[in-house]
Amino acid sequence: MKINNIHLSYYVNNTLKEISSNFLESIENDDIKFMPEVSKVDKGYILNIKLKNKKEITLENFLIDYTLDLKNKNMLVNGYQSWSESMEMNKNGELKPLSSIVKGRMEPYGDYLFYKYKGQKGVFHSHTFTYFRNSKEQDQHILFLGSCDEKSGYTIFEGNLKNNKLIIMKDCRGFLIDGEKSILKLYIEEGEEKTIWKKYCSFFKGNREAVSMCTGWTSWYNYYTKISQDIVLENLENIKKENIPLDVFQIDDGYQTAVGDWLSINEKFPLGMNFLAYKIKTFGYKPGIWLTPFICEKDSKIFKEHKEWLVKDDKGKPLAAGWNSEWSGKFYALDFYNLEFRAYLAKVFHTIINIWGYEMLKLDFLYAAALIPRKGKTRGAIMQDAVDFLNDIIGDKLILASGVPLGNAFKKVDYCRIGADVTPYWENSKQKLLKYRERVSTVSSIHSALARFRVNGEVFYNAPDVFMLKKEDNKMNEEQKYSLFILNNLLGGLLALSDDISKYDENEMELFKSMFPKIRADIHYIKNKKDTYEISFNIEDKGYIVLSNLTGSQVKMKLPQGEYFNKKDFVVKGNTNIKLKPYETKCFYKIETEKDFYLVGTTGHLFPVSEINLLEEKEGQINIEINSKFINKGDIYLKILNDDMDIFINGEKYDSILQKGYKVVRYI
């Protein structure tokens, strides 16, 4: 990487001044001291650039312009916040500016207000972190760059794959330098992808206790704001009736009289929110609840009675944070630096946690806290202050963050949305045409889950939004529903649904139950070619390959060498072309054929054989131990050389039949 230019601009007494250099070196003038430091970290290094002021200084812009070889490279493009579409892109892709048709309504959701989209093929920008990978070889060797501190301003990597340019810039406008401050702390390393990601994630520290992966039900994607007390209780009964081992049962938007008035409950919940929390606990689940701490709608009491709590734009008007047809149109950003508003939020969270009894809080639209720089702080600093404030007042209850720039949430929340809202259809074509990257879109949500999978379980558990298996009000076909279901299960740490499971038919119920117990995958690699994906991973000591076709055309994909099991295809040899229908995904268990007896496959779990904890031969019999959280039924296929051996499952003897040359046991 060759430095072409380092540029810093700042204001002193309303006068704009600049510093430029072609070298990474200390610079000092009458206003400021520019101090770069480079420290070695294994095979990589951390670049830390500090400033020390001599006069009162407010930053305007900072960037480093590099030349590096980007020929035949793909670039990871990480979007601005949770919902922003993210993916690995090649020189033929492009990011176009948001359409002027929806600018007024949609701009606040993304980075459109502070980053100028280039709209050229092969020119991309990525927030907080990025990497470059050889597009032809698709190997695991990458050049990685990641910000270790977003408080000094959001870090943006602008890559030009055709002109071999990389610009690293900070959204540092408004940053008041008072003493010695770091403006860029960057980790750079070239090497093996998995190792580098783990190292990068280890740099972040937080005060959240380690939590487990999570499954749950949420009201939003089936009922939206039409939720009621009766609907909640009905779904609670239906899930318990089927003995579904969910962890969390969450009430989403629709319980409050207006967004912002969180302690004012509408008439659809006559017994109050503490009653529902109590009922959820008696059914054995953790109660969860949704709120948006930093916004209010114009019909709320907060907006009408507390204008002093609102963030104001440069004209002194309330700052719009977006527009929502489910609410009263425009909604507005609240100033969490206002002490009265902080006291209000403290009261809200005290009530929700200590009086009502909720144990998980889904905190949404968090980006709104930091729409504009103010009080001598960057957007990134304000966002970090806001997340830290939420940590302080929520304490040890679970936090699911959404609509947040990811870097500010690292090690600060338990679970984090990492993709767009899913929809009961594959793509939102109208919003895609408008170049809106935060659009509600199932395929966009999947793309982001694939792009951001490396942070799952390292800085928080990824929440890739819900899956939908229902038939009613669902335009997705069976392949699309299954792809969303299996990829969310594979890539996510928090899995949820909104379906009324009492309406599931036998096949839908069997598929739903096949996700239990929730698995933790150790992913080796994800290879992407024109929206077809090969994913190699382990579940404990068991190996798997997932082949996924997210396109609208049939494709052929080749399995690696070996012997594999799939529920539909049964036993398949490696180096075989697998036909995938449009939008189809298949999971293959890699059979371990070297033993005298071995598991060929199972049909009850989404990831075959993952429900088997133990397989052993002891005293002339085969013993199989199945995970206690497995709740489905299915067949177990075994290869046994000695046909006389009895088979025991969890201590109980089972009969078997011979089928296709294998022993088959039906486990119910």
UniProtKB/TrEMBL annotation:
Q: Which UniProt keywords apply?
A: Glycosidase, Hydrolase
Name the family the entry cites: Belongs to the glycosyl hydrolase 31 family.
Show the Gene3D superfamilies listed in the entry: Aldolase class I
Q: Does the keyword Hydrolase apply?
A: yes
Instruction: Give all residue intervals belonging to the Glycoside hydrolase family 31 TIM barrel domain.
Output: 219-365
Task: Give one Pfam family.
Answer: Glyco_hydro_31_2nd
Lineage: superkingdom: Bacteria
**Organism of derivation:** Clostridium ganghwense
Write down what this protein is called. Answer: Alpha-galactosidase
